[in-house]
Amino acid sequence: MAELKLFNKWSFEGIEVKDPGLKPYICLKPSILPRSGGKYSKSQFHKSQMNIIERFANKLMVPGHKGKKHLLTSGRNTGKTQTIYKLIKKTFEILEKRTNENPIKVFVIAIENAALREELASYQAGGMMVRKAVVTSPQRRVDLALSIISQAAYRKSFGKKKSMAEELADEIYYAYKNDPSKSEAIREKERIEKEADASR
């Protein structure tokens, strides 16, 4: 049987998740076009069985809004699977040219680097709000990394000359390089971890 490659171009073979905490939560099951169509939605922790590229596509369809006024939105891409997969393909082509590496490997390392380990939880004690540092669950670590990467790219490309694919490639590349000065995901991770460290 022929090897299944992402978009018939990039192999999943030999790609490993080095972070032991994230290993069970980043699925790298080979697929040409990862799309489960809600196949696992009724099972517990179903997201862990979904290919990481599909989870990323879902985040790109609904990356969230900025502020109460909904200044930035993904409305134009919501539910448009073909548009999103074309965007991911173009992004991965840019990454391949820039790094000379398998873009799936670059993407996985970027997620590992952007996945925060600690965050703040607020609760009420008496009449005051208390903030306490808590360890972030691995599933949430992956979700937050994907969300921040997609939101940062939308924000940077909105109304700008650079396309979404170029901004997305930049964000993933600098997260892969673990560069907080140019990657919003790494910067946000460091900010939250610093606040959590101060509240311990």
Structural features, described:
This protein has 200 residues and is mostly helical. The chain has one domain: Orthogonal Bundle (Ribosomal Protein S7). Helices cover 44% and strands 10% of the residues. It has helices at residues 52-61, 81-99, 103-114, 138-157, 164-176, 184-198, and strands at residues 5-6, 10-11, 118-125, 128-135. Strands 1-2 form a two-stranded antiparallel ribbon. Strand 1 (5-6) and strand 2 (10-11) form a beta hairpin. It starts with a strand and ends with a helix. The model has no long low-confidence stretch (mean pLDDT 87).
SSE diagram, text form:
Elements: E1 5-6, E2 10-11, H1 52-61, H2 81-99, H3 103-114, E3 118-125, E4 128-135, H4 138-157, H5 164-176, H6 184-198
Helix pairs in contact: 1-4, 2-5, 3-5, 4-5
- Which class do the helix and strand fractions yield? mainly alpha
In the predicted model, the low-confidence regions spanning at least 5 consecutive residues are: none
- Strand line-up across the major sheet: 1-2
State the CATH architecture.
Orthogonal Bundle
Q: What is the CATH topology descriptor?
A: Ribosomal Protein S7
- Percent range of helical residues: 40-55%
Mean pLDDT, all residues:
87
What is the element string, with H for helices and E for strands?
EEHHHEEHHH
What is the total domain count? 1
Largest sheet: 2 strands, antiparallel
Radius of gyration, taken over Cα atoms and rounded to an integer in Å: 17 Å
Number of helices: 6
* Broad shape: globular
What is the β-strand count? 4
CATH classification class: Mainly Alpha
